[in-house]
Specification:
single chain; about 325 residues; alpha/beta; Spore Coat Polysaccharide Biosynthesis Protein SpsA, Chain A; three-stranded mixed β-sheet; membrane
């Protein structure tokens, strides 16, 4: 018996099969896309190098000042002549060392102060300076009622150089004199420091301090200027708030260096509350007329005048 063989099936090409010609074209397209993608990545990398260093941090544009001097002027109640003397003093110092000045007016921050004491303006002013000079490394706030008396001293050699700062740092001492139980850390090194400040007989002294640009600086200033602190009736406003946050927040204390008062904050003989060896002596970096604007028996303009004349005389003999 013979059996019929099943009919052969003619192979049918899959409905989506591509011709070899189409596959070749597709490979060419993919190769072109890959080359284009590589080219774009290369361009992106090259452009990024224009703005970032090899460590991934923003590159500093040429001509950027390493130090910005922040001075907050309160024009209410002071003559133009007095203000111009302060400005001239700062401009001379900045020019000598390649620094730049940031002059702010208290009136610029009245909305932010929201009826808080006008002395609070220092905090938003420094924050403003940092935003205006994002590539500068250090911000030196010096109270307007102060004069730089020894302009030959750069901040680098006088304070900021590693060996110099480590020799100045006061370790394991009360943060707020005379006997705060909270003390400065003894293990800190110069590279750990973002905030450099002094104390007088009773408090920390925000009238003269140095702050290093960075995330800590922004955090510190925002925390210091918290609306809760502004609304609280601290007797010495921003000074007592600084005393408080440094003592109770180790994140801040871990970035803090206390240095001797006369290094950046010598008080005039008419200013009360100076630390031991905190009164101005000839040759000191600055003189500060603390309280001359709040004591009705004193005059900032009269106290400034003899020291301003002395400063001008020194300039003439250089």
């Amino acid at each position: 018996m013979q059996f019929a063989l099943p009919p052969r099936r003619t192979p049918i090409a899959p409905p989506y099969a591509r011709s070899s010609r189409f596959s070749l074209q597709r490979r060419k397209q993919l190769k072109a896309v890959a080359i284009l993608g590589l080219a774009l990545l290369t361009v992106f990398f090259l452009l990024s190098q224009l703005f970032y260093t090899s460590t991934g941090t923003p590159a500093v544009p040429a001509g950027t000042a390493g130090v910005v001097i922040v001075t907050v002027l309160d024009r209410a109640g002071f003559s133009d002549d007095y203000i111009q003397k302060i400005v001239k003093n700062r401009e001379d110092y900045a020019k000598r060392h390649g620094y730049t000045n940031f002059f702010a007016n208290v009136s610029d921050y009245e909305t932010a102060l929201d009826n808080a004491p006008r002395s609070w303006a220092v905090v938003p002013a420094v924050r403003h300076a940092m935003a205006s000079h994002p590539y500068s490394k250090y911000f030196f706030h010096l109270d307007a009622h102060s004069l730089i008396m020894n302009p030959g001293k750069s901040l680098e050699s006088h304070v900021l150089e590693k060996s110099r700062l480590e020799s100045l740092m006061q370790k394991d001492v009360s943060v707020v004199p005379p006997d705060s139980i909270i003390k400065t850390f003894s293990h800190l090194r110069a590279e750990d420091i973002d905030l450099i400040v002094t104390t007088d007989e009773e408090d920390m002294c925000p009238g003269s301090f140095i702050l290093r640009q960075g995330d800590f600086a922004k955090y510190f200033l925002d925390f210091w200027f918290d609306p809760l602190y502004l609304s609280y009736n601290f007797a010495k406003a921003e000074t007592h708030v600084l005393d408080h946050i440094v003592q109770w927040h180790p994140t801040i204390l871990a970035r803090l260096a206390l240095i001797p008062q006369r290094i950046i904050n010598s008080y005039s003989k008419d200013s009360s509350g100076a630390a031991v060896d905190g009164v101005y002596k000839d040759g000191d970096f600055v003189i500060r007329f603390l309280g001359c604007d709040t004591d009705t028996k004193r005059s900032c303009e009269k106290e400034l005048e003899p020291y301003y004349r002395l400063w001008v005389s020194k300039l003439k003999h250089e």
